[in-house]
Amino acid sequence: MRIGFDAKRAFFNNTGLGNYSRNTIRQLLRYFPENEYRLFVPSKKTRIPFSHEPASCVYPDSFTGKNFPSYWRSFLINSQISKENLTVYHGLSNELPFGITRQKCKKIVTIHDLIFLRYPALYKPADRKIYLKKFSYAAHNADVVIAVSEQTKRDIAEMLNVPGEKIKVVYQGCNSVFFEECPQELLQKAISNYQLPEDFILYVGTIEERKNLLALIKAIHESKIELPLVAIGRKTEYFTQIEEYIASAGEELKKKIIFIDNLPNEMLRAFYKLARLFVYPSVFEGFGIPILEALASGTPVVTSKGGCFAEAGGKGALYANPANPAEIAEMINTALYNEDVRNNLIAGAREHSTRFTDEKVAQELMKVYRG
Q1: Domains detected in the chain
Q2: Cβ(178)–Cβ(204) under 8 Å?
Q3: pTM here?
Q4: pLDDT per residue over 85-99, tens digit each?
């Protein structure tokens, strides 16, 4: 088979869709090396170092494509897809190029979530309109739509009016390093470089309204949870609300929270290993990769009720109403101090995370490609 990918995110996005794209390509290269792989990339000036050999990159070959990479990715790419004589073309991040129906290859798109439809107030009207057009076109013109969770499958069927039989759930994995033992020198480097406390609660994710970090901070403060919080993620305008709350709460809370931005990817696994507990109070996700990263690291999780969270967390997590800081605090204290529950969570984390290994994800993807 000759398989092509829309690989923009793999080379230009450091988190989220970028991680999904890199992991997908890496998994297939490892477990199905007999195939040929083509990575369609809109520019040679990439931002993310990504070892992808022996897959080859396909770049814009016209003046217009080279100077207008977004236009190339949405339209002009079709001529190069034809030249590559692909068996499968897979849009890894919610989109397929317009005009893809003229291609003879099998057309597949992964749709990660429809949060812009569930929570429209979080998006600008112009962005919502663009997303709806792109997502709808891809979903209706693909031969198969891959959803990253059962929750996302339901949303695609209901909100985009796509037949359920056309949608296949293929869970995404996380980087295999999270399943491995973390070198002692990396653990020590994390402790010394970031002055980490001996025990701490960990949060990983963009600091934005939907991720709901303020509810976790309120839970820690209002219920007088003793362990400090380490929050890793890029700050947005929402961070102002967090700053205001911390300032009003006083110096004691301020001393208990460490914010870290721009953490190197190779350092992240050390934080998961060192954390006593991982808490992810997000209101809604397509899947929730940080939950899986924590479970693969053997770290218990407290996350939100509803949505996809039970799919991601399984028996390795406790679940709380994300709008109720007192309930979040109760689950945190249970996971920290009830030894029977904690031991069950640790065992459940290891067991549940084995459902998302590189090999299993690659096999499920290949079933879709061959089906």
Answers
A1: 2-170 (3.40.50.2000), 176-356 (3.40.50.2000)
A2: no
A3: 0.91
A4: 999 999 999 999 999
